[in-house]
Specification:
alpha/beta; Alkaline Phosphatase, subunit A; 2 domains; three-stranded antiparallel β-sheet; 27 helices; elongated
């Protein structure tokens, strides 16, 4: 029965009321769990709850509203439907953008209308597919909302945007998700409110009545055809026009979240999706790239053949075959570069002062920030730069690397045992598949360290751990002790690649032992970051520094030659707000580069023949680090590495967006610089070395 006739509420109206009740229960439960931030004004919560409750009440009256609707002329009904459908599109777009976007409205009207068109075609296609029953649009509205909520959390945890390749590694995101606090702020509560309003508008959309002269089959066919056309237009808009070219959508991956906020989620996401293929450099041919590779490699060989220092190191390496340990330490960086964090912070002391006999040490330019560990290790292990492949890509997730030259396979050819270590799930970033492709004989993951510890409620002590844990998991020390045991048990040369875990975010876990807690309070800072999160991170770095100190002391006592390469994969995401607050008016690339740096050291527990201790700090990038290490210790290099080492005399370092010349100045890829030809040659060489092998 219709509510307008006997005040009974139909089952369909009750069904429409259920989502609003669930939303209210969800918000209430989230609050009871302490996951609604204190910064949310009470009046906002009251108003939001009232709006959601009113939407639920209004959906219960939909039969009465429809009865009133049926009294209106056909042209009025049509206009009301158009208004409702337009409102649904706007509200759905707001439900997507508001949870993460602090720059509403967008930077230009084209982005607003483009996002509206994309969302509108999705919802229209679902609406027509459901024979103009609005309930079929509900999953589309929910999808748009969840995209915004997901971006909210990715922004908070990584200070970055969701990229298409992120969808390929959801298992990795889920594996580390329990280390973060999924709290809602004022923006996410507003997004939930817009979701409720969009669903309320959906509940009020009255399906048009079929005319007596129209057959049911014809109406169904017409709607299905309209749905197909809508989805076809949506596919066309996603796949055909160039978003970065024709539509003017921009993207600098260093500032991906800023561009998503300025241009809208979906236009930016699609622009990145279209940018996924590796671009072939201008003038590229296999023959020309091969000629350049051989030419640069020959120049390197010619420079070394009479270099007595190099010849001495090479002879020593061939005779001693030192074991090589590479430690890529999670989120390890020296934040004292931010003027001591305006709090007197001096950085990790052993790392900075304990390697007076290092072969090389300095600043390391990386292409990721806050997350994306796999890209740093990819660049190190393959010598390829994401600057040429595409910073928005995760090669571990999207390529078969079995045909790509890798450092582990290189050591394996020299008779080394090769072992990768990561004390977390082996499936993270597909390492269980990628490492064998790269030539690792063995991969030690979380199960080899006693399994994932069951952290206690107060997160201060693990429940019966099999090994030492700190902060986010197995401590650095445990991985170092594991390698020391293997070195003592096996006299043969070994190559280790250790990806640590303890310093992983988030930095609001409140589980730092008292002896490692720090109490730095940055002055003249009024941004979003809190001293508590900063100090939790700095405590992790102190623990890593202590573990490194003990490890190096043990290596010094080890009666066999060992080379240690230690570097951080990226800075924590919390450094960006400080960077933005304290250095607001810098050129964009120079400003970003401060946040996209880490630190490295190359050290040996023996005197490397022909090599002096490090002098002034040396700046380089991850893709150059392995080749530089091999050169320093006298190990053989392949043709690609030899070409890199020669080009390194002109271009010592690459970043995500530019390159450093031998004059220590930074240049954009398209700049008219003294090193432009070397940079172009390098782009051809790298394309041949990677893109043609996957």
């Amino acid at each position: 029965m219709r509510a307008g006739s006997n005040n009974r509420i139909s089952a369909a109206s009750w069904a429409w009321a259920v989502p609003f009740a669930l939303i209210l229960l969800f918000v209430f439960g989230w609050g009871m769990a302490g996951l609604l931030e204190d910064s949310i004004p009470l009046v906002n919560m009251i108003c939001s709850s009232a709006v959601i409750a009113y939407c639920g009440a209004l959906s219960l009256k939909r039969d009465d509203i429809w009865a009133w609707y049926d009294t209106k002329p056909a042209n009025v009904q049509r206009k009301l439907r158009i208004v409702l459908v337009a409102a649904i599109g706007v509200l759905s777009m707001l439900a997507t953008e508001v949870p993460f976007n602090s720059r509403m409205p967008f930077g230009g009207p084209i982005y607003f209308w483009l996002e509206m068109l994309l969302a509108g075609l999705l919802l229209l296609g679902l609406y027509l597919l459901g024979q103009r029953h609005a309930a079929f649009c509900a999953p589309g509205v929910a999808l748009l909302f969840f995209a915004g909520i997901a971006q909210h959390f990715v922004k908070r945890f990584k200070n970055a945007a969701i990229l298409p390749t992120d969808l390929l590694v959801l298992d990795t995101a889920a594996a580390v998700g329990n280390e973060y606090v999924f709290s809602f702020n004022e923006q996410t509560v507003a997004g939930i409110t817009y979701l409720a309003l969009a669903l309320c508008a959906l509940s009020l959309v009255r399906p048009p009545r079929r005319q007596a002269s129209q057959s049911r089959a014809r109406v169904v066919a017409k709607n299905v055809g309209g749905s197909a056309l809508s989805f076809a237009l949506l596919a066309f808009l996603v796949l055909v026009p160039s978003y970065m070219g024709l539509l003017g959508v921009q993207m600098k991956y260093w500032y991906s979240i800023d561009y998503y906020q300025m241009q809208g989620f979906f236009p930016s996401f699609i622009a990145v999706l279209q940018d996924m293929p590796i671009r072939k450099p201008g003038g590229y041919t296999d023959e020309e790239a091969q000629r350049l590779t051989e030419s640069y490699a020959k120049a390197y060989a010619d420079s070394q053949k009479d270099d007595q220092n190099h010849l001495a190191a090479a002879a020593q390496f061939e005779e001693t075959k030192p074991s090589v340990i590479v430690v890529m330490n999670e989120s390890f960086a020296d934040l004292s570069v931010y003027d001591g964090m305006h709090a007197g912070y001096e950085g990790p002391q052993f790392f900075k002062t304990g390697f007076g006999d290092a072969l090389a040490q300095g600043t390391l330019n990386v292409t990721v920030h806050g997350a994306g560990t796999c890209n740093t290790e990819f660049e190190f292990l393959t010598n390829n730069s994401l600057g040429f492949i595409g910073v928005g890509k995760y090669p571990y997730s999207i390529y078969d690397l079995s045909g790509v030259d890798a450092l582990a396979a290189q050591f394996k050819q020299w008779g080394y045992d090769t072992c990768a270590i990561h004390p977390n799930y082996p499936s993270n970033w597909k390492r269980d598949k990628i490492y064998p492709q790269m030539g690792f004989d063995q991969f030690l993951s979380i199960d080899d360290f006693g399994g994932v510890p069951d952290m206690s409620v107060d997160r201060q002590t693990p429940n019966e751990p099999h090994c030492e844990v700190f902060h986010s998991g197995v401590s650095d020390k445990e991985t170092y002790d594991c390698m020391l045991r293997m070195l003592k048990e096996n006299d043969g040369p070994q190559f280790f690649f250790d990806v640590t875990m303890a310093n992983h975010g988030s930095y609001d876990q409140n589980n730092i032992p008292a002896e490692y807690q720090t109490h730095y309070v940055p002055t003249d800072y009024e941004g979003v970051e809190t001293p508590e999160r900063l100090n939790e991170y700095l405590a992790c770095i102190n623990k890593s520094d202590d573990d490194l100190k003990e490890f190096v002391a043990n290596l010094r006592e080890l009666n066999r030659p060992v080379v240690l390469v230690f570097f951080g994969d990226h800075q924590p995401s919390l450094s960006v707000p400080y960077n933005d607050y304290w250095y607001p008016n810098e050129p964009e690339d120079a400003h970003a580069r401060r946040a996209f740096t880490s630190n490295y050291v190359i050290w040996a527990n023996y005197d490397v023949a022909g090599r002096e201790q490090v002098g002034t700090p040396d700046e380089t990038s991850v893709d150059m680090l392995a080749a530089n290490t091999l050169d320093l210790i006298g190990a053989p290099v392949n043709t690609f590495q030899a070409a890199l080492l020669n080009i390194r005399t002109s271009i010592p370092s690459l970043s995500a967006a530019d390159y450093q010349g031998a004059d220590r100045q930074w240049y954009a890829p398209d700049a008219d610089s003294p090193y432009a030809q070397a940079y172009h040659d390098l782009s051809l060489i790298e394309y041949l070395n990677f893109a043609t092998k996957i």
